[in-house]
Amino acid sequence: MAFYQFHSEQKINASINEIWDFISSPTNLKEITPDYMGFDIINTKQPLEKMYDGMIIGYKVSPIFGIKTTWVTEITHIRDKEFFIDEQRIGPYAMWHHQHLIRPIENGVLMTDIVSYQPPFGVIGAIANKLVIQSKLKKIFNYRTAALEKRFGIYSVK
Question: How do the domains of the chain map onto residue ranges?
Answer without folding.
Answer: 4-152
